């Protein structure tokens, strides 16, 4: 029996319609209890949220009843009215699905083998002077503390359990924007807390029941209220794990669906009820085609790594999911796009999915904080292995108790990853590898082994370039440089996360000449030392369009800004086409461009 928030609307018809005075909605954990245990209603939250009345516009008739304005039938005293014990948050045990109890996602948070001195709390000084730029109409002001935004007691408790003391810059801006119901395109550095930035408003919104629609009675079909899409299986799993922590004991149920794992198990999870579905596009298309998921109740859509999701590889699938199925259109649903990079062409595409959105840029990936020390070394192809070995030996010598620090080595091809892993192991360096030709089990095992420090060297293709939050990665080595500066930015962002410092070393030779200009510009902007030979390479580069970012402190800027100096167009003509197409060709892990409807890629 499905027991998600959405299901409850279907089950009892006791969720109030627009302005109506129906009987109160009973959250799953409180059902089957004497009515006296259900706390009484107060609607003060609604008054403080301006954006959600838009859900009331264009309300369809029949099965789909959009609730006009904020729900006020929620059994929640004084939500947002200053510290009332919210109805959702009065719960003691989270969702209680019959015999099923919510597993405590914090229980296995014990940190492995690493130096205990590592600060688990973010170094906010590192973010002090980060430039922030917003554009769009009526941008809600940022907050300085979580207390300023009433996310609800249960969510606040989870924030404390996560040891988040105050919001990161991207959270300070995006949470009020999202809570006010606005669409958002947000560009903020790697490792700066974007996951929480989109999860908190979604969870809080679902807890408050904003804009909820009654689903039709369809057995075995899941009706999530929020959809979070990400490009890789591992990233979807990671978002799912994070979201489960944030949603613990809130009554909001989070389910993940991704390729390479048995679909039956995921179907069973969906049947138990889902409020937030985290998914990779291929598996989601599969579930939609099997009619096991409907998107008609979606109120929140978040695309993580949104520029990647909308580039040539994924765009057809994303369009299918967002525009050709039953998802409510922009203006009815709320859409949030997040990434550390946002090429202008992709922004233009993305605007199809948004309504009257706010653009936010928080600094430049990894560079404006100088958290990541970037080094570029001239290394011929034939010398790369011995050079890597020198680096690894030096690391052991300088490391704590002669231990190898976690080192992530990026290579261009899957074959290259296999052979480098083998060579490292043969030479006494415990290494493992992750790439798109490995089974999902092997991929997950490789990540686990790396994270735990069992094999402290992970050789990876771009499958591991985006989003993965692996604590304690001390060094990222670009054994093979990517062809796109944005990929470089995401790769090096696997270190220097959440205010910690990191080191990134790139091996450069004539084959990477097309990257010279972008790389030296990026390094300059990040106050890194640019070797003279790289500057010479860069000045020799005959064309200016490809990979050119222009001089700005932001990862990208709002393409709508007409006044924006055209001379500083970061993504001049020719960038997107050339380099994005390169994913498939170079086999860097993404099977971009190869999708067709109904085909599940190895990625999903
Ligand atoms: N307010 C906060 N206080 C302390 N730590 C935080 C806070 N917000 C997020 N973090 C931690 O910062 C780390 C990075 O967060 P996250 O993975 O969301 O970054 P990201 O911006 O999505 O990075 P990427 O661009 O690489 O995907 C995580 O370990 C997360 O738990």
From TrEMBL:
Domain DEAD-box RNA helicase Q, first and last residues per copy: 144-172
Domain Helicase C-terminal: 398-538
A single MF term (Gene Ontology): RNA binding
Motif (Q motif): 144-172
EC number(s) from the headed UniProt entry: 3.6.4.13
Low complexity: bias regions: 1-24
Keywords linked to the UniProt accession: ATP-binding, Helicase, Hydrolase, Nucleotide-binding, RNA-binding
Region (Disordered): 1-57
Sequence intervals crossing the membrane: none
Domain Helicase ATP-binding: 175-360
Polar residues bias locations: 33-47
Catalytic activity: ATP + H2O = ADP + phosphate + H(+)
Family in the record: Belongs to the DEAD box helicase family. DDX3/DED1 subfamily.
Protein name: RNA helicase
Record organism: Lithospermum erythrorhizon
């Amino acid at each position: 029996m499905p027991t998600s928030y959405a299901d409850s609307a279907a089950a009892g018809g006791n969720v109030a319609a627009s302005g109506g005075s129906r009987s109160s909605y009973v959250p799953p954990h409180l059902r089957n209890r004497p009515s006296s245990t259900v706390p009484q209603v107060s609607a003060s939250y609604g008054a403080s949220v301006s954006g959600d009345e838009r859900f009331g516009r264009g309300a369809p008739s029949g099965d789909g009843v959009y609730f006009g304005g904020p729900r006020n039938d929620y059994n929640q005293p004084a939500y947002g009215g200053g510290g009332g014990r919210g109805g959702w948050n009065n719960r003691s045990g989270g969702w209680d699905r019959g015999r099923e109890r919510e597993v405590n996602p914090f229980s296995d948070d014990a940190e492995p083998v690493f130096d205990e001195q590592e600060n688990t709390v973010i170094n906010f000084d590192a973010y002090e002077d980060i430039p922030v730029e917003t554009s769009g109409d009526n941008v809600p002001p940022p907050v300085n503390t979580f207390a300023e935004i009433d996310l609800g007691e249960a969510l606040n408790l989870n924030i404390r359990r996560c040891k988040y003391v105050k919001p990161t810059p991207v959270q300070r801006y995006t949470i009020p924007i999202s809570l006010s119901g606005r669409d958002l395109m947000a560009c903020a550095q790697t490792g700066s807390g974007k996951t929480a930035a989109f999860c908190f408003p979604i969870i809080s919104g679902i807890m408050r029941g904003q804009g909820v629609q009654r689903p039709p009675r369809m057995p075995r079909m899941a009706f999530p209220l929020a959809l979070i899409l990400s490009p890789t299986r591992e990233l979807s799993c990671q978002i799912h794990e994070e979201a489960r922590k944030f949603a613990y004991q809130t009554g909001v149920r989070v389910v993940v669906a991704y390729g390479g794992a048995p679909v039956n198990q995921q179907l069973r999870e969906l049947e138990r009820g889902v409020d937030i579905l985290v998914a990779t596009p291929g598996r989601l298309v599969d579930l939609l085609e099997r009619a096991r998921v409907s998107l008609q109740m979606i109120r929140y859509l978040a695309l993580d790594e949104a520029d990647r999701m909308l580039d040539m590889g994924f765009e057809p699938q994303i369009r299918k999911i967002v525009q050709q199925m039953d998802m409510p259109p922009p203006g009815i649903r709320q859409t949030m796009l997040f990434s550390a990079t946002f090429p202008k062409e992709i922004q233009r595409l993305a605007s199809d999915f948004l309504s009257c959105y706010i653009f936010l840029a928080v600094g430049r990936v990894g560079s404006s904080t100088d958290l990541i020390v970037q080094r570029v070394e001239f290394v011929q192809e034939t010398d790369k292995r011995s050079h890597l070995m020198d680096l690894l030996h030096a690391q052991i010598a300088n490391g704590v108790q002669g231990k190898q620090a976690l080192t992530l080595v990026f290579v261009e091809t899957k074959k290259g990853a296999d052979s480098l892993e083998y060579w490292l192991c043969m030479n006494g360096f415990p290494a493992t590898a992750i790439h798109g030709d490995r089974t999902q089990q092997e991929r997950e095992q490789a990540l686990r082994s790396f994270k735990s420090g069992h094999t402290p060297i992970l050789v990876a293709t771009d499958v591991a370039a985006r989003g993965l939050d692996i604590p304690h990665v001390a060094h990222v080595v670009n054994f093979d440089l990517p062809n796109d500066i944005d990929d470089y930015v995401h790769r090096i962002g696997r270190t220097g996360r959440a205010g910690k410092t990191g080191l990134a070393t790139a091996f450069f030779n004539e084959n990477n000449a097309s990257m010279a200009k972008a790389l030296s510009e990026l390094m300059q902007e990040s106050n890194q030392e640019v070797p003279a030979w790289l500057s010479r390479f860069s000045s020799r580069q005959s064309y200016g369009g490809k990979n050119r970012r222009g001089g700005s402190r932001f990862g990208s800027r709002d393409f709508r800004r007409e006044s924006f100096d055209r001379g500083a167009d970061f993504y001049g003509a020719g960038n997107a086409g050339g380099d994005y197409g390169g994913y498939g060709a170079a086999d860097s892990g993404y099977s971009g461009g190869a999708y067709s409807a109904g085909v599940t890629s190895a990625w999903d």
